[in-house]
Specification:
The chain is an alpha+beta fold. The chain is globular.
């Protein structure tokens, strides 16, 4: 049992085009850190929330009932903490309202850090329900497509009907993800409220076919089939208008050889999958498309087998 622990949890791509609320992919390098320190005072408190520059975060609350990290940590402590509590220091590396799983990364990092303070720490996979409590506060629903890959790494299938069980999907050989974050924001909760309530049978069958085909293609490393199936006929058409660079970035990505390109989560971030060798050129093409519209952006290139959350100290 430790007195202090720091955990890192990566950003993630939610939905992955084919699987709204049920498929997610971990990213490399971008992520949040949470340091948890045991306290004699009961419950979870937040000492500070820092932005990427190490300054106090102006847009995130340090109230324990208003932060995804402390909400996740409190849920875990309520069930497994013996006495006292923990104080959290949160270091945000993932931009807010970015479509990169920002709220999920904080919740996961906090759950992993606080778990290390328990007398009998849980297995990593057992932390999923507690991290989901934090994500539920931020997004207004229970969906694990950001939390599960951030916690476990890799490519995860996590339909709500199976939770808390999730399925680690096979990683196709030779495929990387490229994530572009334009300097824009989209509120996830608002974006969800704006979605249509019903869809045609034809739309559902088409999307189910794409999801099934994509999973099979990943298992067989069939890049051509990944390109045929990495599509979203349900959610993307409703959300892309909120991202003014969507068409330009997507066209640039496809033109540079992407297997497919769509929104990450509710946006504004966008992702593409591609042959490993094309990833640098693809990232550059996506950035140039943004720059032509006078929108600043960042890109990350990741293996599809990127690791999940980890303890650092």
């Amino acid at each position: 049992m430790s007195d202090t622990a720091t955990a890192f949890a990566p950003a993630s791509i939610g939905n992955l085009a084919v699987g709204f609320d049920m498929v997610g992919l971990a990213l490399e390098d971008a992520g949040d850190r949470v340091t948890a320190t045991r306290s004699d005072e009961a419950g979870i408190t937040v000492a500070e929330v820092q932005n990427p520059d190490g300054e106090p975060h102006r847009d995130l609350s340090a109230r324990a009932d208003e932060n995804t990290a402390s909400i996740a940590a409190q849920a875990l402590w309520d069930e497994h903490g013996k006495s006292g509590g923990a104080v959290l220091k949160i270091f945000k590396g993932v931009p807010l309202q970015s479509g990169m799983g920002s709220s999920a990364a904080s919740a996961v990092a906090a759950a992993v850090a606080v778990n290390a303070l328990l007398e009998s720490p849980l297995e990593t996979k057992e932390l999923l329900p507690y991290a989901l409590e934090g994500e539920k506060y931020a997004s207004g629903g229970v969906h694990a497509d950001n939390v599960a890959p951030s916690l476990l790494g890799g490519l995860i299938l996590c339909p709500a009907a199976l939770l808390p069980d999730v399925i680690r999907l096979p990683i196709p050989e030779g495929v990387s993800s490229v994530l572009l974050h334009p300097d824009l924001q989209v509120n996830t909760a608002q974006a969800r409220r704006g979605l249509a309530d019903n869809y045609s049978m034809e739309q559902w069958l088409t999307q189910q076919g794409y999801l099934a085909g994509f999973i099979a293609a990943c298992a067989s490393s069939d890049l051509a089939m990944i390109g045929r199936t990495l599509k979203d006929v349900l959610i993307e058409p409703q959300r892309k208008a909120a991202v003014p660079c969507f068409d330009a970035v997507r066209n640039a990505a496809i033109g540079a050889g992407a297997l497919g390109c769509s929104l990450s989560g509710s946006g504004p971030s966008m992702f593409a999958l591609c042959d490993d060798r094309q990833a640098p050129e693809l990232a550059n093409a996506m950035e140039q498309a943004c720059r032509a519209l006078k929108i600043e952006s960042q890109t990350w290139i990741s293996s599809m087998s990127a690791p999940g959350a980890r303890l650092e100290t």
